[in-house]
Design a protein that fits this description.
The complex is a heterodimer of chains A (206) and B (357). With 206 residues, chain A is an alpha/beta fold. Chain A has seven helices and six strands; from the N terminus they run βαβββββαααααα. Helices cover 39% and strands 21% of the residues of chain B. In chain B, helix 2 links the parallel strand 2 and strand 3. Classes of the chains: A alpha/beta (206), B alpha/beta (357).
Chain lengths: 206, 357
């Protein structure tokens, strides 16, 4: 097989390393050659954090990814020159002209598992599906940190099992729910209804 | 041990342990800190391995010298500014003939610079950073497996040469994870060569020029030169047994690319168009190999993460001009390599048009 290149693009504290390390460990367990390179700013929280992941059945020479097959974008801080054939990201992070799917990972994390951070495990599950990496619960358990392991595995499985139909249904439902709550908040605060519609729309896209 | 995912910095610690290291002292600094962290975790589980987080890099460097003189294989790990602080101690270790290992995971300098970004700007510092004349031995791996292998070789070479040896790395190599099987890397271990303290006779550890009996020799040029030449000869003779390098890619090409560490990995897509010379032993410079290989090529290009530090060394050794592709500001990428080659008019056409990954 030719090399496959994945980029996880986020900021410090979002779990870029956990996702990258878990994915690389799973790919290694499947017998692939893997390179995983971390590139991050020295600001630990809020600074750019990237994981460049390549896998192949042949040794990999250059570990730096400049053109990804898939990018998981948790925040938009990555290198400006990075290109990607396909982007999976949270709501509002897709750029014009990109082949992308937007999934409200953080909201799904809160809704189904009680914390937004589990949204990143849902994203990992989706990334595993897009990369055709088989879901191996035992290997996953070994690769994930001990803390919240059960919840993390459940969240990864949730993301892995999402179907395109479900994704299409989730997005309007969640975005509409967020829009409705923002609109209600704005109106209750005395905002003119037309202005409240506009403000809720901006928040929903943010 | 089966294959596993391992980080370059962790591989350095494992190589040191394999080589017989029992003492680490250091002060945390990106991008080398994982070595310190791994050493502390290892020490907690292995009481025979001693770990010191010192108050700064000066103390760390002197602590590993003391540990070596006391009988331990010792090492430290740091990065650019910390390595600068260690220079006086490195000179002291050269003066005393102390086998120990300094690991320098390079970042973008000078000063604090870009703490997590990869650089290769310490090439000349590893050779000339301390005062006076001394013979540096420096290795620079370019993969996680090599981080393990050449850490062992650095310890071996330090013992044989009875001098401090530097292992260079960089932020990308230190933070690179690869699937490795360390059991396939079999490097014989050179046993301890320096007798420990309390071996039965008096030893003097002075930075001052002295006669063998300890009397000052601070105005005796003949004695100074005798000791200097003896140390130099020993180190050069030992270094010849560690003359590691890679020569490959398209050997029939007209142009030879010289790259090392992470830049050699990033430059891999150039392979069909260029020959490659990768020095693994950075110092002493691989003069004989360069003088044998370079004349086969019309042009030489040095691709490196500094503004021509190693290129200037190659020019001096070969008495000819070389083209330079400096990768600065942490921009270690094939795109930066292509831009650099384009700037000097040596970018192959298909690489100009290709999509990179």
């Amino acid at each position: 097989m030719t090399e496959r290149a994945i980029v996880i693009d986020g900021v410090g504290g979002q779990g870029v390393r956990v996702i990258g390390n878990t994915m690389a460990t799973l790919l290694g367990a499947m017998g692939y050659e893997v390179t995983l390179l971390y590139d991050y700013d020295s600001s630990v929280r809020g600074g750019m954090s990237e994981a460049f992941l390549k896998y192949s059945d042949q040794p990999i020479a250059n570990p730096v990814v400049e053109h990804a097959d898939v990018t998981l974008r948790l925040a938009d801080r990555g290198p400006n020159h990075l290109e990607s054939d396909y982007v999976v990201c949270d709501i509002g992070l897709a750029k014009p002209g990109e082949r992308a799917e937007e999934i409200p990972f953080l909201e799904l994390g809160v809704k189904h598992f009680g914390r937004d951070l589990f949204g990143n495990m849902i994203a990992l599950g989706r990334l595993l599906r897009l990369a055709n990496v088989s879901f191996d619960e035992a290997a996953l358990a070994a690769a994930l940190p001990a803390k919240y392991r059960v919840e993390n595995i459940a969240a990864v499985r949730y993301g892995y099992e999402l179907t395109p139909d479900q994704i299409r249904q989730i997005v309007p439902e969640e975005a509409a729910g967020r829009f409705a709550s923002r609109y209600a908040e704005a109106v209750l605060a005395g905002t003119d209804p037309n202005a409240a519609i506009e403000r809720a729309g901006q928040h929903a896209a943010a | 041990m089966a294959k596993r995912l391992l980080q370059g910095n962790e591989a350095v610690l494992l190589g040191a342990v394999k080589a017989g290291a029992t003492y680490f002292a250091g002060y945390p600094i990106s991008p080398s800190s994982e070595i310190l962290m791994a050493a502390s975790v290892y020490a907690a589980k292995h009481p025979e391995f001693r770990f010191l987080q010192a108050e700064d890099e000066i103390a760390s460097a002197n602590a590993i010298i003391g540990a070596s003189l006391a009988g331990a294989k010792s090492f430290t790990a740091t990065s650019g500014p910390g390595f600068s602080l260690m220079q006086e101690a490195i000179g002291y270790a050269h003066k005393l003939g102390v086998p120990t290992v300094f690991v320098d995971v390079q970042r973008v300098g000078p000063a604090t610079g870009m703490p997590t970004m990869p650089g290769q700007g310490d090439i000349l510092q590893t050779r000339y950073g301390s005062s006076g004349d001394y013979t540096s031995i420096v290795f620079y791996p370019s993969s996680v497996a090599e981080c393990y292998e050449y850490t062992i070789q650095a310890f071996n070479c330090a013992e044989e040469s009875q001098s401090p040896v530097v292992l260079l790395s960089d932020a990308f190599l230190g933070h690179l994870n690869e699937i490795v099987d360390l059991d396939t890397i079999d490097v014989p271990i050179v046993p301890r060569t320096l007798e420990p303290l309390a071996s039965g006779h008096t030893r003097l550890f002075s930075g001052v020029a002295t006669y063998p009996d300890g009397e000052p020799a601070t105005a005796d040029a003949d004695e100074f030169i005798r000791q200097y030449e003896e140390a130099k000869e020993r180190r050069l003779e030992v270094a010849e047994r560690y003359a590691f390098y890679e020569y490959g890619w398209n050997k029939d090409a007209e142009t030879l690319v010289i790259a090392f560490g992470i830049t050699r990995r990033i430059a891999q897509p150039l392979a069909p168009h260029f020959a490659l010379f990768r020095p693994i032993r950075i110092w002493p410079v691989l003069q004989d190999q360069l003088r044998e290989i370079a004349p086969r090529y019309k042009r030489l290009i040095v691709i490196e993460g500094s503004d021509g530090q190693y290129a200037s060394v190659v020019e001096r050794v070969l008495y000819r001009d070389v083209h330079r592709v400096p990768l600065l500001g942490g921009r270690m990428s094939l795109e930066a390599v292509r831009e650099g080659l384009d700037r000097i008019g040596l970018l192959p056409r298909d690489l100009a048009e290709a999509t990179v990954s």
